Amino acid sequence: MKKRCKRPVLLAAALLAVAAQSAAATATSQTASIGLKSTRDKGVVSIMTDPVLVGGRLVLKVVALNPTPQPVPLRANDVHVFTAAGKSVPVMTLDALIAEARGENHSGNTAMHQSSNYSRPQTSTSQTGELDVSGITGANNPIGGTLAEQQVRRRGDVEESPAVREQVEALKAGILQVVAVEPGKATGGQIVTERIKFSRKEQKALRVVVDFNGQQHEFDFEAPPAE
Questions:
Q1: The domain spanning residue 189 has which CATH number?
Q2: Strand runs (DSSP E) across the chain, as ranges?
Q3: Per the domain annotation, does 20 fall within a domain?
Q4: Does residue 163 lie within any of the structural domains?
Q5: Residue 225, burial from CB neighbour count under 10 angstroms (0-12, 13-18, 19+)
Q6: Which pLDDT tens digits describe the chain residue by residue (227 residues)?
Q7: Cα separation, 52 vs 29, whole angstroms
Q8: Which of 80, 134, 222, 224 gives a 20 to 30 Å CA spacing to 89?
Q9: How far apart are CA 37 and CA 133, in angstroms?
Q10: Residues 101, 164: contact at Cβ < 8 Å?
Q11: How far is CA 182 from each of CA 100, 104, 114, 115, rounded to the nearest angstrom?
Q12: Could you tell me the residue range of the domain that residue 107 belongs to?
C-alpha cells in the first residue's frame, strides 16, 4: 500500500506565520527582515525582504524616492534578482499570482498566497519632515482571511467566490506593476520571485538590482532562511 503524502501547507498559512515571526523578530534574529537603502543623486531606493523564503520564494518590498522635479516610473521589470553565482531569478508576474489565487495551475504551480502580505509598503516622515524610505515595516491595511482550501475556477460563466475576488484585488493593489513616483515623494510595491534553488555548494546569497531614473541601485545580502 502506497504511503499517502501529507497535504502541502498552503502558502497562505505560511505567510500568516511569517507575519507573526516578523513582528517578534529582532535585528539579530535569523528570521529578521533584511532592510537596505541605496542613495544616488537621482533617487533613493529601499528594499525589505520577508524574514524567510516563503515556499522557496523571495517576497520583497521595493520603495523609491524621487528627488527630481519630474515624475519617474518604477516598474516591476526594473527589479532584477540574482543568486551570488549570477543566475537570474525570475520575478512572478501579477497575472501568475492572480492565477494562483484563483487556484489555476499556472506553469504547474498551484500554491496559494495570502494576499495581505502583498499590500503596499509603508512610507513615513522623519523628525525633520523628510520622507523616510528606509523603514519599510510591512503592509498597509492588510486584508485578513485565507482560503481554507484551493479554489479552482472553472472555465465558463462560473462566478468567482468573494474570497477569491478579495485576494485578486489585494494583489492588484499591492504587487508592483508600473507606478509614477511623483517629485519629492516615495512609492513602490512588492515583488515575488519564482522558487529559488541553490546548489549544495553554492553560496546562499542574493543580489537585487533596481533600475530607477537611469541609475542602478544594487543590494547584496544573505538569502533569508527557508520557512
A1: 2.60.40.10
A2: 35-40, 43-49, 59-65, 72-75, 79-83, 88-89, 124-125, 131-132, 178-181, 186-192, 205-212, 215-222
A3: no
A4: yes
A5: exposed
A6: 555 544 444 454 444 444 444 444 433 344 678 899 999 999 999 999 989 898 899 999 999 999 999 999 999 999 999 999 999 999 999 999 888 888 875 554 434 445 444 444 444 444 444 445 544 433 343 322 222 233 334 444 445 788 888 888 888 888 999 999 999 999 999 999 999 988 888 899 999 999 999 999 999 999 999 87
A7: 11
A8: 134
A9: 8
A10: yes
A11: 32, 36, 29, 26
A12: 33-222
Decide: 224 and 50 in contact? Cβ < 8 Å: yes
For cell 522635479, what's the residue?
Answer: 69
d(CA 98, CA 171): 7
Cα distance between residue 218 and residue 184, in whole Å:
22
Instruction: Give how far Cα 216 sits from Cα of 75, 131, 193, 211, 213, Å.
Output: 13, 21, 19, 5, 8
- Residue 196 corresponds to which cell in the numbers above? 529559488
Cα 220 from chain centre: 17
User: Per the domain annotation, does 207 fall within a domain?
Assistant: yes
pTM for this model (two decimals): 0.68
How many domains, the chain? 1
